[in-house]
Write a structure and sequence with these properties.
The chain is of the alpha+beta class. The protein folds into three domains: 78 residues; 49 residues; 85 residues, no CATH class. Helix content is 62%, strand content 13%. The chain contains ten helices and seven strands. It has a three-stranded antiparallel beta sheet with strand order 2-1-7, with helices on both faces. Strand 1 and strand 2 form a beta hairpin. Helix 3 runs antiparallel to helix 4. About 6% of the residues have low confidence. This is Phage protein. It comes from Pseudomonas synxantha.
Length: 229
């Protein structure tokens, strides 16, 4: 998957309003921290200075800052050229090995950010439901969970259903159509998916049902181009 495709899927997930606000906030923080190493701190700093000078109306300082900005951008172009040559001659894995200490430090920082953010989100969620847990625990367990399936910038909910609810395919017709299935009835009048099987990348086939669909997308053994969260 290209960086543009990944960016599109991320932005779609943020805009789709299918994920809890704390999860999106944590994702944004992790993304910002990861991308910070790809941004020139000098350019970021001078842009901030230009913004401050423009706000204060200091024209003389603005002229000097724009001259400095031009020099930095010229240097950035030369740097990008050398980086492009490095990319052609060196694999990503070798670059990581060369900077393994820096990469490990970044990985630990991000992991800690995830731990802290997840802890806060779970703590807040627990605080909201603590008072009603006894009366609603049974009802909550009966509610279906769902995965978010994304393809070409569009998303649908794939619900996990059990028992009689699982046999009712029409209620989830939108996501099945999104995945390329049709809902038909067999000789006994029972709803089934058409096609009835999922063809995997190794040539084998498995029954077309909710768990197998979710597993195939997760393991990337079918449904090329689809992702699941």
């Amino acid at each position: 998957m290209t960086d543009k495709a990944s960016q599109t899927e991320y932005e779609t997930a943020i805009a789709a309003d299918l994920h809890a606000a704390p999860a999106k906030e944590l994702g944004a923080k992790v993304l910002k921290q990861m991308l910070s190493v790809t941004t020139s701190s000098a350019l970021t700093d001078i842009h901030a200075q230009i913004s401050a000078a423009a706000t204060s109306g200091d024209d003389e300082k603005l002229v000097k800052l724009f001259e400095e900005l031009k020099k930095l951008k010229d240097a950035e172009k030369a740097n990008l050229k050398s980086l492009a040559e490095l990319k052609k001659s060196t694999s990503f894995e070798r670059v990581l090995l060369a900077f393994q200490d820096e990469f490990k430090a970044l990985a630990y920082d991000i992991s800690l950010e995830v731990i802290k953010g997840t802890h806060v989100a779970l703590k807040n969620a627990g605080g909201k439901t603590k008072g009603t847990r006894k009366t609603s625990e049974k009802d909550q367990s009966d509610k279906p969970t769902f995965h978010t399936v994304t393809h070409n910038g569009k998303s649908e909910k794939l619900f996990t259903r059990w028992g009689r609810a699982a046999a009712n395919l029409t209620q989830d017709e939108q996501v099945f159509t999104f995945l390329g299935f049709k809902i038909v009835k067999n000789e006994a009048g029972k709803e089934i998916l058409d096609p009835a099987t999922i063809k995997l990348t190794d040539g084998s086939e498995i029954p077309a049902n909710r768990p197998n669909i979710a597993k195939a997308i997760t393991e990337k053994t079918a449904f090329d181009g689809y992702t699941i969260a």
